Amino acid sequence: MARHFVTIKDIAKILNVSVSTVSRALRDTYDVNKETKERILALAAELKYKPNFNATGLAKGSTHNIGIVLPFITNYYFSTVITGIQEVAYNNGYNIILFVTNDSPERELSIIQNLSVSSLDGLLVSISSNSDSCNHFQEIIDEGMPIVFFDRIASEIEASKVMQDDYNGAFEAVEHLIKNGYTKIAHIAGPKGLTFTEKRLQGYLDALRKHNIAVCEDWIIFSGFSKECGEEDTYKLLNCTIRPDAIFAVNDRKAIGAMLALKNKKIVIGKEIGVIGFTNDPVSTIISPSLSTIAEPAFEIGEKSCELLLNHIRKSYFHPQEITLPGHLIIRESTKRS
């Protein structure tokens, strides 16, 4: 007969407390009631509870390996984030191990479920676009695995997070278009449900409202992040009864897709329809006309994420922090009307 190993879920169920309370008590953190902690520790001893991985090793960072779970490694943004992570990790004697989901929630779940957590001291995570649930991350957090989310965060999970200022970046991008005389501004957005998709959408909407420009729902299109999605979204906009005179894209890849669609339709970019993106991908300086954009602090996001994770690893309890880093507007040819 297969042996049943006691888990923190079993202890939580017996004592009618949350799994996270049990996890914190077993890690001897300061924020658990003394009586509750004693009950948990007593029951854990009675049931001969053992962690699913070497918790002592994790606390001491003895493996000196950090896992990074992210959607892609082939685009500029994530490769720059990884460079920032490497800089901090290697300077502190840590190696990094990459797990690439290809933006698939199913692959993300499989990676986490099959993760050899005993070989890792902590995880840095950027979630997949269409992740309906992040319970798989909560489960390994509850077992004591330090996790820091970056860029694409799990908003419902209490953990440290590092993000760029999506709202103000979007607001600045749209206000730049308005100040250049564009008044019919469309937004080709990312997938619904992602925190930064919603923040960039809100920045777009609030900039329009500040300048008393009506919001046209037909000019807001949600889709993926690729150049192809940008092209498809732009063709939809061009088929609207009233055509927009500017496009704010959720990222540079979609903005470049929009520019390719406009060129295909012989529309003069800037003069007839302005385009602005978000990232400052190197290709934005190569394409003609060059692309106006909001530069993201990708390298700094990598640095800060890794610094936070190392703080979690080294301390028995490190209160979760949220860090938001500002971007900045870069004006190029794609938003010039003359």
Outline the structure in words.
The chain contains 13 helices and twelve strands. Strand 8 (246-249), helix 11 and strand 9 form a beta-alpha-beta unit. It has helices at 8-15, 19-26, 34-46, 55-60, 76-91, 105-113, 135-142, 166-179, 195-210, 227-238, 252-264, 283-286, 298-314, and strands at residues 65-70, 95-100, 122-125, 147-150, 160-164, 185-189, 220-222, 246-249, 274-276, 293-295, 322-325, 328-330. Strands 2-1-3-4-5-11 form a six-stranded parallel β-sheet, covered by helices on one side. A four-stranded parallel β-sheet has the order 7-6-8-9, sandwiched between helices. The protein is α/β, with parallel strands linked by helices. The termini are far apart.
In brief:
The protein is of the alpha/beta class and 338 residues long.
Enumerate the strands of the largest sheet in spatial order, edge to edge or round the barrel.
2-1-3-4-5-11
Q: Uncertain segments of ≥5 residues (pLDDT<50)?
A: 53-61
Distance between the termini: 78 Å
Question: Radius of gyration, Cα only, in angstroms?
Answer: 23 Å
Number of helices: 13
Largest sheet descriptor: 6 strands, parallel
Gross morphology is elongated
Give, in order, the helices and strands: HHHHEHEHEHEEHEHEHEHEHEHEE
What would you call the structural class?
Answer: alpha/beta
Mean pLDDT: 90
Helix content: 40-55%
| Number of DSSP strand runs | 12
**Beta-strand share of residues:** 5-15%
Break the fold down into its secondary structure elements and pairings.
Elements lengths: L7 H8 L3 H8 L7 H13 L8 H6 L4 E6 L5 H16 L3 E6 L4 H9 L8 E4 L9 H8 L4 E4 L9 E5 L1 H14 L5 E5 L5 H16 L9 E3 L4 H12 L7 E4 L2 H13 L9 E3 L6 H4 L6 E3 L2 H17 L7 E4 L2 E3 L8
Parallel strand pairs: 1-2, 1-3, 3-4, 4-5, 5-11, 6-7, 6-8, 8-9
Antiparallel strand pairs: 10-12
Helix pairs in contact: 1-2, 1-3, 2-3, 5-13, 8-9, 10-11
